[in-house]
Specification:
By secondary structure, the protein is mainly beta. The chain has helices at 25-38, 185-189, and strands at 62-63, 79-84, 89-91, 95-97, 117-119, 129-134, 138-139, 142-143, 157-162, 167-179, 195-207, 210-224.
Length: 225
């Protein structure tokens, strides 16, 4: 099992391969549905080792009403850039992540900890459904892309540049920090009839070499430009 573990996925009869560029939207939704039923835990992306090189982090759980649907679903186009002004994030390219031989969600490698990753089994950002992005808070090498995650709050925007030249702008509706053993699988991966984004990183104190909590941002598509 890889040291840099991602989501623990219960083995299925037919393993789900990473999505390719030719995978249809129907197939992506099927993959997401299967994952929602098979994920056994939360993101294990941040593995700083026994001694942290970044401070323990906690965000306040908060939520507001869903944003009104002001733009319709966008056509499929893979993410290329992640911009979060409140966390001082501006990163590109966005890595393509699948599942590994242990049926765990891949995460950005340690030497690319300043980049985010998109799970290719989810829809592309802006399509109908929940698109899933993951990023490190810290690694054994020190603070990573989401080092300023504590500055993010409900109402902030997350901008995702796309391969077709457009930008999908999401507004954070909910922030949630949970212990990994209590990871809200169905809430994160469950079916939604709107374009939404899930951005997941790690937080909390280090336990057995891993951050003990997940920080999850739920966001609604509010603009496309």
């Amino acid at each position: 099992m890889s040291q840099w573990r991602g989501f623990s996925v219960v083995p299925m009869t037919t393993p789900t391969p990473p999505r390719t560029a030719r995978t249809t939207r129907t197939a992506r939704l099927a993959v997401a549905s299967a994952l929602a039923l098979g994920v056994g835990g939360g993101l294990m992306a941040c593995t700083p080792g026994p001694v942290a090189k970044a401070p323990d982090v906690r965000v306040q759980n908060a939520a507001t009403a869903r944003a009104e649907a002001v733009v319709g679903p966008l056509r499929a186009s893979e993410p290329t850039r992640l911009v979060i002004p409140s966390a001082k994030v501006d990163a590109s390219p966005v890595l393509r992540l699948g599942v590994d031989s242990d049926q765990e969600l891949q995460v950005p490698p340690v030497d690319r900890a300043e980049q985010a990753g998109w799970y290719t089994g989810s829809v592309t950002p802006g399509e109908k459904g929940a698109s899933v992005l993951v990023a490190h808070y810290d690694t054994a090498n020190g603070p990573a892309l989401m080092r300023n995650v504590k500055g993010m709050k409900v109402g902030d925007v997350i901008e995702v540049g796309r391969a077709d030249g457009s930008t999908a702008v999401f507004r954070i509706r909910e922030t949630q920090q949970v212990e990994k053993k209590d990871f809200p699988t169905h809430k994160v991966y469950g079916k939604t009839d709107r374009p939404e984004l899930r951005l997941i990183t790690c937080g909390g104190p280090i336990v057995d070499g891993h951050r003990s909590a997940n920080i999850i941002f739920y966001a609604d598509l509010v603009q496309a430009r």
